[in-house]
């Protein structure tokens, strides 16, 4: 049986396809949520100073700050799981995977922030970029290593060679007497 990918067979294809479909669906949802025009009477100026928006949220009280920070962390957090899932590598460096995923999440977040400059009612906020990137890193660090360990164990169990058990002895093997060759 020929193995494909690092998981093997159709399981790898199903995981990659599912990851790809979920990744596209999540990115479409995020684009709809963050890039639609808002009808507002006035707009705050762009926040280009790191942590200024987070400090302002904390000044409003812990409930408002928690809601705002969790919204920022959760928006792109699924990318921390969906990007490695769509990539489909089972045997890879954990640190390399984390760095690649966080970099991709940061670039997606930066792209969203840059696209928001042309959308009425949307404001560029560097704190959103930071929170989105941290959310991707947290999701990746909490889910992906454990999932890879589980999939590796499952893969080893499925591909464990079965050792045929010896059949009980049925006695001595009969021999045939040799016949000489004629001259």
Automatic annotation (TrEMBL):
Cited InterPro entries: Teicoplanin_resist-assoc, VanZ-like
Transmembrane segments annotated in the record for this chain: 12-35, 68-86, 98-117, 129-151
Keyword field: Membrane, Transmembrane, Transmembrane helix
Keyword Transmembrane appears in the UniProt entry: yes
Keyword Transmembrane on entry: yes
PANTHER family assigned to the protein according to its UniProt record, in alphabetical order: INTEGRAL MEMBRANE PROTEIN, MEMBRANE PROTEIN-RELATED
Name of protein: VanZ family protein
């Amino acid at each position: 049986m020929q193995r494909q990918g690092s998981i093997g067979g159709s399981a790898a294809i199903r995981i990659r396809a599912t990851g790809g479909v979920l990744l596209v669906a999540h990115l479409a949802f995020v684009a709809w949520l963050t890039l639609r025009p808002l009808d507002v009477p006035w707009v705050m100026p762009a926040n280009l100073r790191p942590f200024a928006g987070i400090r302002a949220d904390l000044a409003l009280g812990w409930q408002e700050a928690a809601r705002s920070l969790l919204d920022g962390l959760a928006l792109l957090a699924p990318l921390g799981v969906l990007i490695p899932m769509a990539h489909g590598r089972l045997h890879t460096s954990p640190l390399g995977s984390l760095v690649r995923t966080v970099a991709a999440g940061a670039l997606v977040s930066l792209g969203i922030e840059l696209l928001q400059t042309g959308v009425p009612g949307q404001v560029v906020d560097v704190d959103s970029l930071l929170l989105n990137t941290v959310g991707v890193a947290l999701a990746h660090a909490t889910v992906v290593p454990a999932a890879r360990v589980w999939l590796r164990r499952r893969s080893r169990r499925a591909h464990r060679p079965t050792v045929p058990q010896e059949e009980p002895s049925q006695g001595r093997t009969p021999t045939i007497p040799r016949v000489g060759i004629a001259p």
